[in-house]
Design brief:
Layout: H1 9-16, H2 41-49, H3 82-89, E1 103-105, E2 110-116, H4 120-137, E3 142-146, E4 149-155, H5 164-179, H6 192-203
Antiparallel strand pairs: 1-2, 2-4, 3-4
Helix pairs in contact: 4-5
Bound molecules: the ligand C[C@H](O)[C@H](O)[C@H]1CNC2=NC(N)=NC(=O)C2=N1.
Length: 213
Amino acid sequence: MNLSRTITPTARRIISGPGILTRLPASPSQQARITISGGNALYRRRCAARSQSTMASPPPLSPSQPQAQPALQPAFSSGSDQAALEAALVPLLSAHGAGGRWTLAGEGHALERTFKFKTFAKTWDFMTAVSLQCKIKNHHPEWSNVFNTTFIRWTTHSPKGLSSKDVDLAAICDSLARDFGEIEQQDLTCRLPSLADKAVISSGDCCVPKTKK
Ligand SMILES: C[C@H](O)[C@H](O)[C@H]1CNC2=NC(N)=NC(=O)C2=N1
């Protein structure tokens, strides 16, 4: 099932306001659409048939293993300006204690964060605004949504690692989430990352050129 909705006036004002550089499509038919598929039997079978995504968490530690983990270091996409990205990550990463709420994942190749809003409408407007930024940057997230909560993971598939697009889009998400009235909740543990992992498995590789059949 395809789900699409017209951007509300509030969303339009926020998206086209100062701070975020974007351009709205001219007509409703051109407006950004996000399609979320889920629940169909084929999708479930495909996901069950495969093992783990690259971002899946390791199995839980057994009691005999030490609990302390060395801090994950960012693994940058080749060709990145590493010094600039290191600096840009400081206000984003929770580990730096500067108020950031993103965490490194996938052996440092990805940035992850969960966002919560009061209603589904606000959540959807936020996702629509993010999707417009993705269009501008030609870069997509690995994300999942249930009701008022959205999990977002930024990683670059080719060349693999964290790139400036990931870091920029993470900062843009923070800004958009504020504009759309994000609920500031500290402990946002949920199962949405595994939902995104399943979508990664079924989506295939975005960087492999499509062959015509
Ligand atoms: C061909 C096209 O430019 C590439 O597939 C782009 C599109 N969006 C992308 N998004 C992400 N997250 N990683 C990529 O490597 C990537 N590559």
